Amino acid sequence: MKTLAECATPALVLDRNKLQINAKRMLDQCHRRGTRLRPHMKTLKSIEAARYCIDPQHGGIAVSTLREAEYFAALGITDIQLAVCLPPDKLLRAVRVPSRKFSFFVDSIATARALAALAASDRHWNIWIEIDCGEHRTGVAPDDPLLLEIAHCLSSVRNLSIEGVATHAGQAYAVHEPAAHARIAEVERAALLEARQRLLRGGCDVRGASAGSTPTAAHGENFDGLSELRAGVYMVGDLFQAAIGTVPMADVALSVLATVISHNRRRNQIVIDAGGLALSKDRSTAELRDGDGGYGIVADIEGQLSFGRMSVRDVHQEHGEIRSATPLPFERLPVGSRVRIFPNHACMTAAMYDSYWVVAGGAGVVDRWSRVNGWSSPTVEQAMESA
Amino acid sequence: MKTLAECATPALVLDRNKLQINAKRMLDQCHRRGTRLRPHMKTLKSIEAARYCIDPQHGGIAVSTLREAEYFAALGITDIQLAVCLPPDKLLRAVRVPSRKFSFFVDSIATARALAALAASDRHWNIWIEIDCGEHRTGVAPDDPLLLEIAHCLSSVRNLSIEGVATHAGQAYAVHEPAAHARIAEVERAALLEARQRLLRGGCDVRGASAGSTPTAAHGENFDGLSELRAGVYMVGDLFQAAIGTVPMADVALSVLATVISHNRRRNQIVIDAGGLALSKDRSTAELRDGDGGYGIVADIEGQLSFGRMSVRDVHQEHGEIRSATPLPFERLPVGSRVRIFPNHACMTAAMYDSYWVVAGGAGVVDRWSRVNGWSSPTVEQAMESA
């Protein structure tokens, strides 16, 4: 069997056993609380990973780009929700996503009107009106008059169903305790119920209510009235998720395989071939009281934390510098040896790779999984080139 | 003619006119100071861009990964320097880089010995011994006994030429004025001359001396004794380079094309479809006294700074939030309209895209250029899969 010792570095490693544990934990939480899960594939962007995470009671997924939607649709996923607001000019590309049920978010009159103007297309549109429950990124506040304006505009469009209202409590990342996440989960739920109530009173019979973030989904206690929860990074976790208590450190499933390329004993420094590109420059753990993991925590090739909290302290484009207040294990980590780095933010780190080496607990490679990246569509781009 | 108004977003835009200006400025500087330029392609990773930057008096380029080396070699570049130390197990891949002259850095006995062990291969190795001139990333200090040890080990290898000594004064980024960069350029030069002198005295007749970073190359005043300078980000610049005075803001050639997807007038916020992935999470300008550009400065579709210093203040994976202390231009930027974002750090931002839309001063697309990313080699990976 091939092992991680033979893979070119840097490379992305996914532990399938841990993925399964994380997938089951979240599915159990959703079912126990009486709702269903729509796994968000923005972190892993992989059909093989999606198959481990899809809720058999639901069947759908969420994605973050049209490119992802095209990839998953081509591979047979029939219910795909693009959990982002589309501007009018992306509708022409959205028309062609080859999925039986493709939906996306709308929070503007501009896009609602563009949909009305496109009514002649054969596509049946499935729309979620995005609600802002306090993150203040996109979405309309539940009490904003714009909510009914958008709903009425959409209701006039032929071939269009308003699937429901959707929200994401990104503000959950500003607090770092399960009890606080549970409170924000309730804010998320309340915003959707209020918005749906207003729509009903305004004559729009809207059924769906889609909420979620990994912290609120993991720690919410009451999901009554929600038709689904969306979450993504829970599948693999990362140092930030571990620090805020949503995924145990022992279940963090994603790491970067790297090779030691240089020693500097004078400076007590070991340099690896994974730098700012391979690990990402995300420093989300810097703000955590006890959780600062630099640019990643160094594990051995088996994924064990046998070096304690040893971390990558600085990165350059293709270099990562491991330093420590205590003497580094130069003998255990000669030039050419392998390590695995648990990153701060899985979504950002994974984005630099086009596939996963899959392991099942150790350093033996059991599979290779695909991954889609970027935003361009080969088909659309070719069409545009020839236009 | 197609324009940026028709391109799917987010996308990467390269202004060819500005690239030419930047390329000429650096070439002129090198020739005026009596040395030659080896353009570093780690920022743009594009054959078309390389052709605009290669020094006719030199012919070679530098790269930062084996993947780049393979790409440029396959496209006909004959002198490629991988300006990173290779661990022993990458030599098997390096053997197959199809370039007439492929060289890389060595700073360890481990790799020197591995080269000796591989002497039976037909490959002629071209090696640069990496010197640490104060950045303390990789390389051996000029006065370190290891320098001669490595040189003697390499000298014993059949089919191997020590091209010279090489260094990179990354510490130049910690100071932000041309005079300071000029002083560090002198540190860079002195370290190489000292190392070469020690090698000569130790019986190793090493000729080459390769130095460089964009700040030291741009502002150095004396390059006597250097056989070449390496620099990369000067080709396009970015907010950080503009702030430290190496590339004028007017000549920053790289930007991210984005579309407005949401308005929030209550919060004075405009949201675009370029977030942490499309812009990168690099916050290098945060430390600059007057230069903090958030996650990027917003220009109009022509690339003009007609919104002043309006910037992206926060990013999520696929969302960028434009906010300002003064009222935002909602009327000029309706949902669906286009902007261009000048990023903090071109090398990190460009890495998320697989091609460039090329413009020549405005919003008209004049060409499309390729770009290579990541680390895996299709060939090598296939061979490993079947192994």
Can you describe this structure?
2 copies of one chain form a homodimer. Chain A is of the alpha/beta class. Chain A has 12 helices and 17 strands. In chain A, strands 1, 10, 11, 12, 13, 14, 15, 16 and 17 form a 9-stranded mixed β-sheet that branches. In chain A, strands 2-9-8-7-6-5-4-3 form an 8-stranded parallel β-sheet. The first copy, chain A, is elongated and about 70 Å long. The termini of chain A are far apart. Residues about 380-385 of chain A have low confidence and may be disordered. Chains A and B meet through α5, β10, α10 and α12 of A and α5, β10, α10 and α12 of B.
Secondary structure elements and their pairing?
The structure is a homodimer of 387-residue chains.
Chain A: E1 11-15, H1 16-32, E2 37-39, H2 47-53, E3 61-63, H3 66-74, E4 79-85, H4 91-94, E5 101-106, H5 109-117, E6 125-130, H6 146-155, E7 160-166, H7 178-201, E8 208-211, H8 214-219, E9 228-231, H9 239-243, E10 254-264, E11 269-272, H10 276-279, E12 297-299, E13 311-315, E14 320-323, E15 338-342, H11 346-350, E16 355-359, E17 365-370, H12 378-386
